[in-house]
Design brief:
The complex is a heterodimer. Helix content of chain A is about 0%, strand content about 55%. Chain A is mostly beta strands. In chain A, strands 2, 4, 5, 6, 9, 10 and 11 form a seven-stranded mixed sheet that branches. In chain A, a hairpin with a 2-residue loop joins strand 7 and strand 8. Chain A is globular, with a radius of gyration of 13 Å. By secondary structure, chain B is mostly beta strands. The mean pLDDT of chain B is about 90.
Chain lengths: ~120, ~110
């Protein structure tokens, strides 16, 4: 069983479209995250939810909106996509409350390409 | 969170031991040192975590000197499949609201 899964794995879309990425974890963790990894491989945290409550909200454009219907799911919706949004987006989960350096389990990533 | 500095890249050969040193001069008393491994086209994977002295598991060893201002990840007898990016992170285990920051990591290339 995959611990943290993301769909889709690849997403190619045009500018100004709206798209969503879904994430699910079956580890029973309370905390989930979204990270963005750019072409230089720097991994930056975007959002974190603890039991459906937003804990970390980095300086991310309003076009990005996370939604957590339950503690096992954290989806990322992106409005009006821009070229600069092209990156790999990783979902992660952890048992520790958001922000701590307790072990995080990462999904396989979603490679978003905006043309 | 304490800032970390690690080499951008390292080359090694199969069967050798690889040691990656991470500097974290501003480490705080309640900070732990954590290492992640990331293979191409995959998410990072937790390798090891420690607070002081030495920690060893089935994958690696982590050496932390008494002043804790640096740490060394040791990968024994690497194979081609150990080619990956290795990230050093420093921060408290439980710190709601703080952000776990991944730097650029160290690209390790294992050659035949």
């Amino acid at each position: 069983d995959t611990a943290v899964s993301q769909t889709p794995k690849y997403l190619v879309t045009q500018m100004e479209n709206d798209k969503s990425i879904k994430c699910e974890q079956n580890l029973g963790h309370d905390t989930m995250y979204w990270y963005k990894q750019d072409s230089k491989k720097f991994l930056k945290i975007m959002f974190s939810y603890n039991n459906k409550e937003l804990i970390i909200n980095e300086t991310v454009p309003n076009r990005f909106s996370p939604k957590s219907p339950d503690k096992a799911h954290l989806n990322l919706h992106i409005n009006s996509l821009e070229l600069g949004d092209s990156a790999v987006y990783f979902c992660a989960s952890s048992q520790e409350k958001a922000g701590g350096s307790g072990e995080q389990y990462f999904g396989p990533g979603t490679r978003l390409t905006v043309t | 969170l304490a800032k970390t500095t690690q080499p951008i890249s390292m080359d090694s050969y199969e069967g050798q031991e690889v040691n990656i040193t991470c500097s974290h001069n501003n480490i705080a008393t309640n900070d732990y040192i954590t290492w992640y491994q990331q293979f191409p086209s995959q998410g990072p994977r937790f390798i090891i975590q420690g607070y002081k002295t030495k920690v060893t598991n089935e994958v690696a060893s982590l050496f932390i000197p008494a002043d804790r201002k640096s740490s060394t990840l040791s990968l024994p007898r690497v194979s081609l499949s150990d080619t990956a990016v290795y990230y050093c992170l420093v921060g408290p285990i439980k710190a709601a609201g703080n952000k776990l920051t991944f730097g650029g990591g160290t690209r390790v290339l294992v050659k035949p």
